[in-house]
């Protein structure tokens, strides 16, 4: 079974009736109604107008069929997209500006987020991160707190005696 | 002469189901039957008739098939499905209950309350 056949079948299950099918049925009804009105004594022209007023116009029948089977949102969305494309073709300068603005905006946001994620959000690659501590050098009496400048040798030598940390690890910048 | 009656929203579907339940009909036949049963008092049209028919067919409550009309023209005949029959019954009950309650309230006199 070809792709086209499959598509046609699935479309048929959404909209079982074709536009010409709809139109033929509607036209038959409209004609029959109009003939009856003429038979009741209405002039031809007036009968046609009344029939159309009561039943609706032939041209919009397929539309109301599509609406009745729930394709309205689909149709409106499609219409919006076509309208948008038409407008863009109509005014290329505006279209370019819009596309560039969107592109730059999305690009910048993505770049900044990537950096923020890597630096601040992404968890460090160690287990039990909530128990991870950083040892800093400092002297509160003299009122200064230094950076992480404790020498690795010192940490390695002292940490077994501290019994505070399960594991210590140091790293040269 | 009696006044024409305008239909509340959603009742046209019910009437179509009822018309079709009496035997298969084409679109215009449904219209005529409703007009005839109502004694020509209903103003049901104004473009909404076929939309209601399409919707009922979509719901699977009526089924349409092409056939030949009385005057030898191709026409689409609608008949009630099993689901449509259940729907009609449910709607009829709902409608009867609702109108009975509303009418009961509206018809009460002061002494009765």
Task: Give descriptors for this structure.
A: mainly alpha, 2 domains, two-stranded antiparallel ribbon, 65% helix, 2% strand, rod-shaped, B: 113 residues, alpha+beta, Arc Repressor Mutant, subunit A, three-stranded antiparallel beta sheet, 3 strands
With strands numbered from the N-terminus, the spatial order across the biggest sheet of chain A is 1-2
Gross geometry of chain A: rod-shaped
The helix fraction of chain B, in percent, is: 40-55%
Terminal CA distance of chain A:
66 Å
Helix residue percentage of chain A: 55-70%
Rg of chain A, Å, rounded: 38 Å
Strand percentage of chain A: under 5%
Overall mean pLDDT of chain B stands at 86
> Pairing-aware structural class of the strands and helices of chain B?
alpha+beta
What report would you give on this structure?
The complex is a heterodimer of chains A (173) and B (113). In chain A, 65% of the residues lie in helices and 2% in strands. By secondary structure, chain A is mainly alpha-helical. Chain A has 2 domains: 3-90, no CATH class; 129-162, no CATH class. Chain A has a two-stranded antiparallel ribbon. In chain A, α2 crosses α3. Chain A is rod-shaped, with a radius of gyration of 38 Å. The relative contact order of chain A is 0.05. The mean pLDDT of chain A is 85. Chain B has 113 residues and is an alpha+beta fold. Chain B has a 3-stranded antiparallel β-sheet with strand order 1-3-2. The radius of gyration of chain B is 17 Å and the shape is elongated. Chains A and B meet through α2, α3 and α4 of A and α2, α3 and β3 of B.
């Amino acid at each position: 079974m070809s792709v086209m056949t499959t598509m046609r079948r699935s479309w048929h299950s959404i909209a079982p009736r074709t536009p010409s099918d709809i139109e033929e049925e509607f036209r038959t009804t409209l004609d029959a109604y109009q003939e009856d009105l003429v038979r009741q004594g209405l002039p031809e022209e007036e009968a046609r107008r009344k029939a159309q007023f009561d039943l609706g116009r032939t041209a919009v029948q397929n539309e109301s069929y599509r609406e009745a089977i729930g394709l309205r949102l689909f149709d409106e969305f499609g219409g919006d997209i076509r309208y948008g494309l038409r407008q863009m073709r109509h005014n290329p300068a505006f279209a370019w500006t819009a596309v560039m603005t969107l592109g730059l905006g999305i690009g910048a946001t993505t770049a900044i987020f990537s950096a923020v994620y890597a630096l601040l959000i992404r968890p460090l690659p160690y287990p039990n991160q909530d128990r991870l501590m950083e040892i800093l050098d400092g002297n509160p009496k003299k009122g200064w707190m230094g950076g992480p400048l404790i020498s690795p040798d010192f940490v390695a030598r002292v940490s077994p005696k501290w019994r505070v940390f399960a594991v210590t690890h140091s790293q040269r910048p | 002469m009696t006044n024409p009656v305008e239909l509340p929203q959603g009742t046209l579907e019910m009437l179509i189901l009822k018309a079709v339940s009496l035997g298969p009909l084409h679109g215009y036949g449904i219209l005529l039957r409703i007009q005839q049963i109502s004694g020509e008092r209903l103003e049901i049209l104004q473009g909404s008739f076929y939309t209601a028919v399409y919707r009922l067919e979509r719901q699977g409550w009526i089924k349409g098939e092409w056939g030949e009309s009385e005057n030898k023209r191709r026409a689409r005949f609608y008949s009630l499905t099993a689901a449509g029959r259940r729907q009609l019954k449910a709607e009829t009950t709902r409608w009867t209950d609702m109108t009975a309650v509303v009418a009961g309230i509206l018809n009460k006199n002061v002494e009765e309350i």
